Amino acid sequence: MESLLTAQQQRLLDTLLDNLDGMIYRCLYDSNWTMIYVSKGCVTLTGYLAHDLLLNKEVSYENITHPDDRQRARDTIAAAIDKGERFELEYRIVRADGEEVWVAERGSAVLDPSGQPVALEGIIQDISSRKRIEHELFSTEQKYRSMFENSTLGMFQTTESGTYLNANPALAKLYGYASPTALISDLNNISTQLYVAEGRRGEFTEAIRANGRVQNFESEVYRLNGESIWISENAHAVYDAQGNIVYYEGTVEDITDRKNYELQIRQLAVTDNLTGLLNRHAFSGKLASLIAEADKMQRKIAIAFIDLDHFKLINDTLGHRAGDKLLENVAQRLIQSTRPTDAIVRFGGDEFVMLYPGLTIFGRCRALCWPV
């Protein structure tokens, strides 16, 4: 009965060992790693039958270990044994069909009565799939890092609370810093240190929370030297497995030139080219805003129309250049004769309109017009 039970236990043990993923082994602690036991997993792992590996009948395990990894593997195992520890290592083997395979080996030494290692016992498993994934991840990381470091666009990662985790050289240069390290160290509160408009960072984070990302988010920001520039941000949130925001990442583009050009276009649309005063197209809008302000403040607004006498005669006799010079001089006289709150409009060729807001009585208008 005891013999039958022992046989059943052995079959169970063999079954368990043979079904483990990888090769269970016992080898001598010698120059060839001479195998004295291998499980059936050796075929899948190495391409060799157990008979080929046992006692080095066809090939030794030392020989199927990749030549470039042999010494490192032996040194790693020896170091662990010297410390009385289990060993764990990764290296390559060459299968029977010539394919290189990455394996992970874990095990421990068998010591003789004097404490010297005489054998090793452990398991060796194929980790090629994991190594391929690691290589792909590494390649992806390298490509991203290269793009991050060499991009002409500013790139960043920030915490939700408003500190920089990462910044590339282009962003540091854009904001006036010598290096990303200097930027990250100095800009520790994006909300108060970077954006010109109070609350702009809050609008940025709210937009991402609502939509997962922001596109063409335009803001005026400060550079290190205190000057302001305009930027456009494209960014999104990165989440953890529970759906919590881990950080924001995105790009920054300097759009100051575009903003200045747009401002010039807007100014040209409402400004007289010759005198620099408001033009006829701006009159109705300016008047409406001043009337609205007067209603709100319970004040009055006065309008004065000015027409230059004999201007046509000057143009006809002295030429348009002289006429233009006269208009420029008149505009300067009008500017010098008015308050900062007043508005001056060149309404036509020789016609001007003065807008006097903030009056409590219309009698005040005569006094304001008198210097003109």
UniProtKB/TrEMBL annotation:
Residues 9-84, 140-177 form the PAS domain. Residues 299-372 form the GGDEF domain. PANTHER family: BIOFILM ARCHITECTURE MAINTENANCE PROTEIN MBAA, DIGUANYLATE CYCLASE DGCP. Residues 87-139, 215-267 form the PAC domain. InterPro entries: Biofilm_reg_signaling, GGDEF_dom, Nucleotide_cyclase, PAC, PAS, PAS-assoc_C, PAS-like_dom_sf, PAS_fold_3. The lineage of its organism: Eukaryota, Sar, Stramenopiles, Oomycota, Peronosporomycetes. This is Uncharacterized protein.
